[in-house]
Amino acid sequence: MEISPILKSLRKNPVAALLIAAQVALTLAILANVLFIVSDRIATMSMPSGIDEPNVFTFASQDIGEGRNPIDGTLADLDAVRAIPGVIAAATQIGIPMGQSGWQTGVTLKAEEKVEGPERLAALYMVDERMLDVYGMQLLEGRTFNAEEVIAWKTGDQPKPPVVILNKALSQKLFPDGSALGRMINITGDPGEPAQQVVGVVDTIASPWPRSQNPDRVVFVPFRPSGSTNFIVRTEPGELDRVMAAIEEALFKVDRNRIVDGIRDFKTTRARAFEGDRAMAVLLAAIALALLAVTAFGIVGQVSFWVTQRTKQIGTRRALGARRSDILRYFQLENALIVLLGIAVGCTLAMAINGALVKYLSFGALPLSWLPIGALVVLVLGQLAVLGPALRATRIAPAIATRTA
Amino acid sequence: MSGKRTFPTGRLRRLMWGNTATNASRERATPTSEDMTTYYLKLALLALKRTPALSSLMVLAIALGLATAMTAFTVLYRMSNNPIPQKSDVLYAVQLDAWSPERPFDRTDNLPPDQLTHGDSRRLMALDDGYRKTGMWRSSVVVVPENTKVRPRNAPTRIVAPDFFAMFDAPFLHGQAWTAEQEARAERVVVISRELAERVFNKSDVVGDRIYLDDEQFQIVGVLDTWKLIPLFYDVTNNVLNETEDVFLPFSVGTGKEKAFHGSVNCWQPPGEGFKGLIDSECIMTQFWVELPDRGARERYQALLDAYVAEQRKAGRFKRPDNQRVVAVMPWLEQNEVIPRDTRMFVGIGAAFLLVCLLNATGLLLAKFLRKSGEIGLRRALGASKREVFNQHLVESGLIGACGAIAGLILTWSGLLAIRALIPEYQEIAQLDIWLFAGLFATALIGAVAAGAYPAWRACQVMPASQLKAH
Amino acid sequence: MLTMKSLKKIYRTALVETHALRDFSLTVNSGEFVAVTGPSGSGKTTFLNIAGLLEEHTEGQYTLDGINVSGMSDDQRSSLRNQKIGFIFQSFNLIADLDLYDNVDVPLRYRGMPKAERKQRIEQALTRVGLGSRLHHYPAELSGGQQQRVAIARALAGSPKLLLADEPTGNLDTVMARGVMELLEEINGQGTTIIMVTHDLELARRAGRHVHMVDGQVVDIAETDFSSLRAA
Ligand SMILES: Nc1ncnc2c1ncn2[C@@H]1O[C@H](COP(=O)(O)OP(=O)(O)O)[C@@H](O)[C@H]1O
Ligand SMILES: [Mg+2]
Fold first, then answer.
1. What's this model's pTM, rounded to 2 decimal places?
2. Domain C2-231: which topology?
3. Which of A104, A283, B377, C45 is the right S-S partner for B466, CB 3.0 to 4.6 Å?
4. Tens digit of pLDDT for each residue in C77-93?
5. Is the CB of C38 within 6 Å of ligand 1?
6. Domain layout of chain A by residue ranges
7. ipTM for the complex shown
């Protein structure tokens, strides 16, 4: 069977075929964009945090009233937490990876350097000498902070430490060609020569804002937040739930006059950070499925009608020597031609939709590779949809040709 | 039937294939004395019953398309809600630009910063201009209940001037705002929400009672009734889907007690040490709103801001070009892009999907109507006019649209349920109201009738009497 | 050309069994022009369908051009049909969406013929039926007689050995019917075997051989008075 008679016949009755082609075009256009957005969101959601996720949890503690000295109180709290069996390390924290609140600071390299925009922004994490244990993280170069370098920090203090540690992403951003070790940087915004020396570089760690433009740049400073602050705790594998259950009691033993809340394992923190992305991915995936179903069933419905309508024609073709496979092929080819027309228009349309998303909503540009993927999906979809009615067409008896008026 | 040259073109002859004539005699055209619309509806119902698979396919397609578009649109509509329609034209956010002389706060549109420094808020509040106004920020306090068995809890708190309540139409259940004198003396007074009152005291009329906040006793001067502002427009640096706060403290008290700034503190140069250093720095951390009843007031207030900036320049501040302004509620929400871009994208995708579903319905209706062309020819032969055939099929499309709307409503409702489950903070956003419901129904009907127009036109082109001549 | 021995055809539906052919035997030699007559429901179309491999017989033996067709697969029957048989239907059965050229092209396509040969055969066939100048008209633009000529061209284009026609003139007026008959006679004259079912006794008489069917069987009609058959 060749294409040209199918084309001629379609040209004679274009409307129904064009309706299907338009539907396929829109389906492809939506599908390509939706698949791209969903895959993009899934990639975002699986962004590494750099920490020992299954064994980390966080919580907030707040003293009520002027009962105890915040610095001593925090040290006592930390001792109590570390004493819980199964705890590997614990620390107070400003900012938790993916925790969505914390500090951000601009980083400059020279005196009076003017840095525009978010390029030089980095999250600022306050850590103590146990930072590697707390996160379950690797040191790449240099050293971590000594116990003597770590000073207590309370609300209102400005962090101006002599030494800092960078993570890999920030180190590469600031010093693309060479080691950051020993270099001086300015994280305070103070005028004058940079006063913070880089003493170490650690592996990947996420900032508190994984949805920001620079989700992975972090500078660590040697401070131990005191008073009302967040805690981060890392446990032995399998001990997380037990330690989380015991934490409140342990802290109330130290001092009852307090609020402990937001006890949250890291899985939950991550889920909260990407809640919107997950919702979008789920909703869009559902739309994509519904879209494919609607288009497929639409094709089934219309082709079924065509089969009924062409019963006599098919019988005649069979009488004139068409095999069942010829009839099947006719419908398959016809569908492929219609879908191909839809694909041609759909690719343009997909780029147009993406163009609008890029222009008005600053979404990412659709990689062209999604077009052939989407095209393949609708092509296969069309072939599957046409199969049922087409097989029914092959069962039309050739005797129809003589038996109907 | 196709032997005689009854049909002038191949297209029309093709219409006659298929074996649908059998049903025609069952519902022979009745005298036109019967109300035609009822008659058409009866025919449409019959047609639905006769092709249950094709019909439910169309109903389902329309329902799915509608549900997707409407779910997305509901979220958009509720997000773009005017939170305070009675006053949205007189409440203005104040913006000043004391940002870095070296770079603009907003690099794309050169908008002024979205917040004010604490100092600017203080000084603008101190001006004796006769307008209601308030600087404010969000914080939290520890509420210590009388009952020692109940654990203390943090309560969302807003630090405001006494004008706040009248400006934003805060609904007092009991009592009223604190006075300007109490504000000036930083008295330990507080307005709380009904929910908090009931949680702590098990009753709402607690005006005059005392409540422990952090480590001090406060006197309750007012209790607010349940108060919803969606979105919570007066502070866009926090989540606009937050509920209104439970505790409202005087600005002077919040400042004196060094209440932390929840939301964002944004600096272009390092602040001084401690809370004092922060509130006297160029860091922005407070929102500022003013009520300007008319255009004249707006112009006078603009002049006042200009004068304020000019005066501050003398003190070496405001080194950027003039960029002070007031912005009304709806433009303010617009400017701060309160509607997430995902929501807009979702609406676009939903609309495109609806279009696919309508195209789908058009194709299926075309198939459905043309399958009946034998019957149509007979009707025409029996005296139905083109218009009558057209109307009959349009009614059938409309009926399918109505069924689609009902099914779509159920699906929309489940879609919103899914959104509420996926994004808990959309509890109030993902809700259907009566207008949306009406809109849904109208969209479905209009959509289905539009989708059915072409097929109905094709149906009424069928030649009359073709049935009779063919045999 | 074809030999049928004791053929039976039984249509089974849920309620009834219809014996459309009972103990039907017939031999048609190459080059014959056989007219088949008989009252409505006597099994003429059934016979033609079985002869043309559109349907399978229930019992008995059928040999077409020396090939025993019993138990052939659907595909084998299709290609045999395509190569050896041409069909002419009462209602023409032209495909309305295709022009004359493409209509005649249909069976040739299924034979997988190269394009040039198809073109030559199509033009030749259409010219032969007097429609050589209207290759690209559509069936709806032709009269009934012209349409049937296209159908004949379609049947001829594949040079079939056997031409089967089921009341080819049934939908035509007398003048047109005569024209079609003359065309068939001319084709038969060039060697093609023709079996034609007809109600028109005038035409039946013009055929070389006349077979009359009653109730699924051939009735000997050698000396029958045709005028009495009309009433049957
Ligand atoms: N598909 C079928 N199913 C059942 N009965 C059939 C079928 N086709 C034909 N018949 C019956 O077989 C008998 C012969 O039919 P047919 O060959 O069409 O007769 P003719 O062409 O001589 O009018 C008739 O009684 C008819 O009702
Ligand atoms: Mg017959």
1. 0.84
2. Rossmann fold (3.40.50)
3. B377
4. 998 999 899 999 988 89
5. yes
6. 4-46+275-402, 68-256
7. 0.88
